[in-house]
Amino acid sequence: MTVVFILLGIVVLAVLYVIVTYNALVSLKTRAEEAWSDIQVQMKRRYDLIPNLVETVKGYMKHEAGTLEAVVEARSRAMADTGGPMHQAETEGMLQQALKNLFALAENYPDLKANQNFLQLQADITDTENRINMSRRFYNGSIRDLNVKIDQFPSNLVAQQFSFGKGEFFELDEAEASAAAKPVEVSFR
Known about the structure:
The chain has helices at residues 2-58, 65-80, 85-106, 110-114, 116-151, 155-161, 174-181. The chain is mainly α.
């Protein structure tokens, strides 16, 4: 009779462990999905600000049409991208670089730099970039926690049994990382 109770206790503990581990994995997965949603909200905010910025700049930078077209094209690509975090990080990097080039060229136009609308849009976009970076760090931390839980023993057994997959990090690609390491040069020649 004692052996039956011991075996029953072991089975109950195993079932409780599976339940607790499953719930922890669901919680981590949900947190990662929420973090990704935060990134998408901030990217949408940036997409909405860019047309206003381009319209404000158009009148001042008539000779820089190529730069404006690059910003518009990069925005369109980023908005249309429905790939995973790694793919979207690539298109977001192109958009970020196009915006950096636009702001660098704006330095050559004193009237534009003094325009309140431009200054407000530039501040809003900079604020949004900071929010995207914060959201990216939170998302990557959530993905890290999920991936660690999926890899650790014995929770990896539960993760495999219930088909929990590892998440993708939202990282800078090598070209963007090297570009981010070097500030944009402004020249007044």
